[in-house]
User: Fold this.
Amino acid sequence: MTAVSVATVLSMSPQPALAAPATGGDQLRRARSAGPISTSATARMAAPDAEVNVIVQMTGDPVATVEAKAGKDLPTAETDRIRTTLRTRQDSVTGRIRARGGRVVSLMQSAYNGVHVRIARGQIEALTALPGVESVHVVTPRTASDSADSSDSSATAPNTYLGVPQVWQSTGHTGRNIKVAVIDTGLDHTHADFGGPGTTAAYDTARSASAASPDPSLIGPRAARIKGGYDFAGDAYNSSGTGAALTPAPDSNPMDCIGHGTHVSGVLAGSGVTSTGKTYRGSYSVSGVAGLPVAPGVAPQADLYPLKIFGCTGTSDLTTEAIDWAVAHHMDVINMSLGGVYGRPDDPDAVAAGNAVAAGTVVIAAAGNAGQSPYLAGAPGTGRGVVPVAAVNNAASLPGYRGYAPFSSAGPAGGDSSLTSGVAAPGVLVPSAAIGTGTGAVEMSGTSSATPQVAGVAALAVQAHPGWKASRISAALVSTASTDVPGYSPVLGGGLIDPARAVSTTTAVEGDSYRVPAGRVITAGLSFGLQESTSMLGGRRSLTITNTGSRPVTYTLSSRAATNSRPATLSLGARRVTVRPHSSARIQVSLRARASTVGSSLNDATGFHEISGTVVIASGRDTLQLPYLMVPRAQTAVTASARSTPRAAAGGIRAGRPTSLTLTNRGGALAAASSVYTWGLADRSKDPTLSGGSGHDLRAAGVQTMRVGSQPVVVFAVNTWDRWSSPAADEFDVAVDTDGDGTADRIVFATDSGLVRRGAPDGTTEVFIQNTDTGAISASGFLAISPTDASTIQMPVTAADLGIGSSAGTFSYTVSGYGGNGGEDSFDSRWARYNPWSPALDAATDIGVPINRSVGVTVAASAVEIARQKPLGLMVVTPDNRSGSTQAALLPVS
Assistant:
């Protein structure tokens, strides 16, 4: 490598001095291992014709939207007319979809106006051009992933942990006549917990006729507990399968063949089972339920409607259809102990869930079990007005007792970094009805077990507050939750659900208001979104306190920062307010912080920071809280310029001329870390083809070489026009042609590490290599340098893993980017060339640029290698610059 030099200038001089180079590899982070791995994953570039499930969103309002705008439920004849009109428009495009090789899975008109399609990924962009199509969304498979566990006597039963029997006893609220849809794997209606006969023989008989109409005495309007339901999937369905498994086979019998939905339904609304194996009929009191071998659910007299969207194995893409059904059948509460990862508010099932809230249904959804990396919280829990549920550890023998369970997925929502205003509930070793046992129970752990506890409380709250809208019920669940959770954080999961306070409160505290297709929903949180600045960060929101009681109430307001919050100042428009009966008061809330106190996005593997906490609203002994969140990003302000000697008339880099590069960080909030690459590829901005930008609209790509230990490491850099939330939600593929035949010999790709290694996303972006001849996958040994809420990813890989050496080191490369929402972009047929041992442009790799200083770097520009490799110029990457094009300065060579 050619020697280079770097120096800091103590003023904003355009003529920087030069000094010694930075050490190569300082910013690289090691992965857990390197070398071959066993995985079913493949680089997306290697499978361009792979089929995916998409929801084609059509123009026009679904039934829920029309009813919300009308402010009332419409007559059946009118809703039927709306559905017929929408279906006619949908039918007009289904033929064109089939002509492109697509298969229509279902049509929806109630909570969502869309067509569910399975089609080759390469055909997605063509769907956006069809008449009447508003957008196209790739559907991430949803999972129901709680697992059975061995018993642990230290785990406190959820009803005991939350004090639910005391609520039944003191209020009489047990969920009677409240309609609850459980979107899951179905329900074993023969179990005694749901009024079934309670024998294994009864289960075997029912299971053998799972596609036939169920016994109306067990499922139907005349049944004691299960008033209806539907199977959208059929037993053989698996959205991640192949062949016939990809096609749902709906029927009227939501018989469970996995056990997850049965367990969830029991936690939510099981009747309980006596020691003699009979259905418990009451009374629902502290003494009455003590000692039952299968404890009742939180709302033991609610009406259950199981909606089966899973087959007997695998994943599902049918969540939106089930929400559509629930809205059409006027459910009071929807429970979804399922989800994907990297959820966004505009995901189809999140939109449908938000529409359901606007239409009057309380929607509760699992946060997910992917861990505490940012942006892992899954849809549909990211829908507007939906209450996502995290898990707390209720097992005293396990580390972190009473804190958030380590598997519980963290927010915020992808795309707009909005707060997913949620709550937490016990999620470790939760006992409930066991499928096929007749009377038995099983313990499971996960947010899927925590979610039905909150849905049960929602059913009790709906019964207690019959005049409240769905969004107000949701707000009550959040605002009455206890923040007495070790390490409390609105991002990690919010407060612990408090059934007694949710049922008894007469005060509603509400925050942000959002317009969804079906109307307006109000949430129980204040989202200040992503804020980027070199100086001050801030914003203004408002909260509303409503007194539904019969007496005036005086409230005192204060604020409390969360454990992980960066320093900030929250100001309230009033510290004390009296609200008359059946009246409301609106309070302004301002949040400000200095960008310089936030820190760099390169400080850790994710680069995520938060300013978060709660606004505390107290009245006597009663204390409510409203969570708030800002996602701050401190900006550097690095600009780059190059000059060759003798100076060309137009400036810039001249082949064969001594060249100096100047980096200046004028007015940045913090010192910058920049890296210099040989720029090889460029692309113009284009409108995202799907549901909005997710950081895959390619702008530029480059490459550099550094020596780490004894081996050369090649680092690819990709800059995009738009911003991602989590880079692990996307995938960036670099095709590398090492033998000059015009086809890729290796594909270097960066995506979610857990997804590739274990089939379970974990929010870490790792670099892998695929051999295109054998299909074998290897780990590079490096994590990608790719902060959250950014637009540049740096992907290290050893030269040896590329199969190149100094004797024949020149290779060609091109790049494709794949968005988490299904969009993709490439540099078309353009390839760039590079030789790590004889680079056309050679400069320091890592450069520090202090605040209000300039740094000079010498660049060796080889006329011979420029003619051979034809680089576009230099690409200076500064990850802490503002997201988008400013994170990569492009300096052309002439």
